[in-house]
Design a protein that fits this description.
This is Nudix hydrolase 3 isoform X1. The protein is of the alpha+beta class and 786 residues long. The protein has a domain of 182 residues: Nucleoside Triphosphate Pyrophosphohydrolase, CATH 3.90.79.10. It contains 29 helices and 26 strands. Strands 3, 4, 5, 6, 7, 8 and 9 form a 7-stranded mixed sheet that branches. A 5-stranded mixed sheet has the order 17-18-19-21-20. Helix 14 packs antiparallel against helix 15, helix 20 packs across helix 24 and helix 21 crosses helix 23. The radius of gyration is 28 Å and the shape is globular.
Length: 786
Amino acid sequence: MAAAGAEHEVLKQEEYLDVLTKTRQKTGISKPRGDVHRDGDYHGAVHVWIYSESTHELLLQQRADCKDSWPGLWDISSAGHVSAGDSSLVSAMRELHEELGILLPKDAFELIFVFLQECVINGGTFINNEFNDVYVVTTLDPIPLEAFTLQESEVSAVKYLSVEEYRDLLAKEDPDYVPYDVNGGYHQVFEIISERYRENLESRSLTLEKQLSRYAQISLSAELTGLTSADKEALALLIKAAAIMDDIFCLQVWYSNPSLRNWLKEQANKSQLDKLKWNYYQVNKSPWSCLDENKAFLTTADSAIKLLPEATKPVAGWKGLQYRTAFPVVKPPGANFYPPDMDKKEFELWKNSLSEDQKKEAIGFFNVIKRHSEIFLDKAESLDVVVGTNYAHDLYIVPYSKEYKSLLGKAADLLQKAGDLASSPTLKRLLHGKADAFLSNDYYDSDIAWMELDSKLDVTIGPYETYEDGLFGYKATFEAFIGVRDDKATEQVKLFGDQLQFLEKNLPMDDAYKSEDVIAAPIRVIQLLYNSGDVKGPQTVAFNLPNDERIVNDRGTSMVMLKNVSEAKFKLILQPIAAVCISKEQREFVDFDSFFTHTICHECCHGIGPHTIKLPNGKQSTVRLELQELHSALEEAKADIVGLWALKFLIDKELLPKSLVKSMYVSFLAGCFRSVRFGLEEAHGKGQALQFNYLFENGAIVLHPDETFSVNFDKVEGVVESLSREILTIQARGDKNMARIILQKYSVMTQPLKDALRKLELVQVPVDIIPEFPIADEILRKFTED
């Protein structure tokens, strides 16, 4: 196999490479390229393939005769090392530009897989242990050969060859072509390209229809009679501001996601398949399906087409290079919060070089992490500025107020105007405060104002949840929930918020871990009018905010319950699940009051238990920072199981009726199957699987011969308390290793769960809902027309 780097025997200035571990993490050491290959150090390289969609061909380059490896043979479109301090993307752009004279922005490059090449050539003097990031650039048509500017010392010619013919030549080990093992790891290049263009339109439409059918559409509305005329005017502005949260979240998911969204919307009416693509994209807000472990349901072949007339030399009669904007098949764990090729080791090395204040900022909620070396990636004319630049630490921090400046500016203006109209002083304070926060990046005061909101018109807007950051769980996504407060229901749930300190004092964990100053949590019950931003896939029925530990410590948290969403899910999903999965004898215990009451307790229990903790070494930290990417799933499991414990505790203290006992346990069991269907890549699904499997293993849940389940009332209380204690203790100790162990053991799709989900699929019980918001849609329609 060709080595990307065995290029020149003599270099004017020897290139330095970052030394990697065998697991591809940066060590913080860089060495001259010759030393790296002499010593067999692991390092990075890029392979870039240019693929022509219309002709199903790959571009090949003929290596120059002066090359010291594989001279004169046909090879990859472009390849090269990742220089020390460079990112993979910068290197891919650089090699394509230097060798072929093609200058493309970062959204043209699709990372399809990473290939580890381990070989020894040149009589044992050249050891190549190389992690190759393999990219594909998809053009609509072949690039005219006269449009290329070839680097004579590297490339002597280029040509296009069909994917099938090229693969056959490699399989036959044709001596004119650099050898690649097409039956080994590198076969993925050919498989991925061929598979995405082999689609059966009818089959694909049926697949998308099936995926969409897992959601039940439901219209959600609320009575506006309790709102003043001024509040109704403010509502229109708020819905417009909330719609901007969609735009920001779209960008937070992936940098080419906005162009994909716009393209799918434009194409939606061209065919039934195009309509299905757009409809399912709207559910997931990305090309990755939430209910299918984030498996891609679209490919770059479905993506937007862009024209770049200046990407190459001009050619008479040719309008220029047209390419597909790319996105990876595998959902990036760091979303668009971090550079896509940044690993945890690099982040930690950089973070440790910062001052204490900068460290706190780096792991804060409200910024993104970028590379100095990628500053000019989308400014083609400035590429030469970046190439070869080596920063001691390539990463730096960009606050949300700067990263999303244009969008946040528009939203802030709308919130300011809505605040001017609002009749409630607390709503006015919230909206003006949030407008200021969007511009200043300081959310503390506006989140306090949100907690103190006392208004018929209820608003939650801003960056809150961290589920999308699968790398660390640090970065918050933008979202919005707008509704009308249900005064009667809000008064009924006040009991739960008032009991938090009482519950904290009696939690099933060592007293040393308990807090003495838990603050009563306000709970607001609303009828949802509109949501946006990070509300993809399965819809939330409640939330407990803020997540900022400073506020949690100072003021506690506040909860919002979405009653009309809960009612829709109970009617359309939980009752049908119970009919299929719960034993006939216990089916009657599944009721809405129990379902809704446990949801309240779930949210309350986010506010108790360990948050700020003292580690064994005496250091102060937080559960979120210590558990990192494992925190979200374990926290959801904690809130769920401790919520169940709390209900029984309050019943025992005669604060809730004893008649609730059986119904709460059985309704919880039915809810297990509901949440697990969200998928085990999602925090709620992963946390629910943990609870179900633990309870099942310990006899609290019983499987019957007819494949229905029931609660063992004699065992369930003790097992719930045991699991609550285990999770709370892991959190209190900040024990990431034990968190990983319990999640790996129990957050799996066991056979009983598989059998239950199979039955639910056979009778086509919806997995979740797609809410429609007629009031908001009418407001946005008028806004668009204006």
